[in-house]
Specification:
It contains 15 helices and ten strands. The chain has one domain (8-325): TIM Barrel. α4 (69-85) runs parallel beside α6, α7 (141-153) runs parallel beside α8 (177-185) and α14 (297-307) runs antiparallel to α15. The termini are close together. The chain is an alpha/beta fold. Bound molecules: zinc ion. The site of zinc ion has 6 residues, from β1.
């Protein structure tokens, strides 16, 4: 692909997994925290994993260096620069505050750091970053409820919804219903992970018990045609991440990815990079993979705008970008 990057929206990216090895080592030194490697190359080698559970181990051993507001702020600003270079106009990012909280970092430190980062990212790079903090389902639901309360407090600072992440196959959604009710009553939306490492039952529960407005992944909806058409009819956008699905073994090959089936059923699919550094991908590479699977640059952008939890003014601005861009000029060969 050549020329200027076409406009993009990213609704599925975990900020802890966007930190480049050099920056991670710098933060680790600053915070006096040990990493599994001392060089960028060594860290990259450590980050090669096979399957979802190994990925979780890599995640815990690397993202644990983030401890202070300054770290979180830096992570957002760095990634916004990457996004701007890729033509991305709007991102709805995830972060997992319960993990630092378990290591003794106050909730407020995490929320303030990320929200300050979004302010700086807008000024420096012109990218709108909003947040959907991620409840770690491996922890007790009460921690998720505390997260939801904190998320509501930061609604005016760019938090637009909450998510649910972690080991989907071992921790079903229903026990987190109260956390999602707290968020909804506080004016936030819901975009949990569902239908990645667990099947249609997990998606059903995310819709019914958590009131999911959008789904992170949702790809295993293709195992139930009734559910797939319901997602299409209700306009539930799925934030699909093809490269991540390949790396964690959710699909055996890119050719087998469910995206074409989802699009053919009329399901709107935004495209994201999920964990770009840990999965060795980028928003651009995921968009290229999605194009190979039959999505179009314009389709990805429009589905992203449809799924975004932003205010109407921001939505109108994003729509104007999509309406005026010369999509015909994009060369995707
Ligand atoms: Zn994710």
């Amino acid at each position: 692909m050549t020329g200027r990057p076409y406009p993009k929206i990213e609704l599925h990216v975990h900020l802890e997994a966007t930190v480049r090895p050099e920056r991670l080592l710098e933060i680790a030194r600053r915070n006096d925290v040990a990493l599994p490697a001392r060089t960028p190359d060594g860290l990259e080698r450590f980050c090669r994993f096979g399957g979802f559970e190994e990925f979780v181990v890599v995640w815990v051993k690397t993202t644990g260096v983030l401890r202070h507001g300054r770290d979180f702020r830096q992570v957002v600003v760095d990634y916004a620069a990457d996004l701007a270079a890729q033509g991305c106009r709007y991102a709805e990012a995830l972060f997992s505050p319960s993990e630092p909280m378990m290591r003794g970092v106050p909730w407020q430190e995490v929320f303030e750091g990320y929200c300050d980062g979004a302010d700086e990212a807008r000024e420096l790079h012109g990218v709108d970053v909003r947040f959907t903090p991620d409840i770690t389902r491996n922890f007790p639901p009460e921690i998720g409820e505390r997260l939801a309360n904190w998320a509501v407090r930061y609604r005016d600072r760019g938090v637009v919804g909450i998510s649910l992440g972690g080991s989907e196959d071992r921790f079903p959604p229903a026990p987190f219903a109260r956390a999602f009710a707290i968020a909804r009553e506080g004016g936030l939306k819901a975009a949990p992970h569902a239908g990645e490492t667990a099947g249609p039952a997990s998606i059903r529960s995310a819709l019914d018990d958590l009131g999911a407005d959008r789904l992170r992944h949702g790809v295993r909806a293709v195992e139930d045609t009734g559910l797939l058409s319901e997602l299409a009819e209700r306009g539930v956008v799925c934030d699909v991440t093809p490269v991540s699905n390949l790396r964690t073994g959710v699909v055996a090959s890119l050719e087998e990815h469910p995206l074409p089936t989802m699009l053919a059923a009329g399901v709107k699919c935004s495209v994201g990079s999920d964990d770009p550094v840990l999965m060795q991908t980028s928003l651009t590479q995921d968009c290229e993979a999605a194009v190979r699977l039959g999505h179009t640059p314009r389709g990805m952008y429009e589905h992203g705008v449809a799924g975004a939890f932003c205010d109407e003014r921001t939505r109108a601005r994003l729509e104007a970008v999509g309406a005026t861009f010369d999509w015909e000029s994009v060369d995707t060969r």
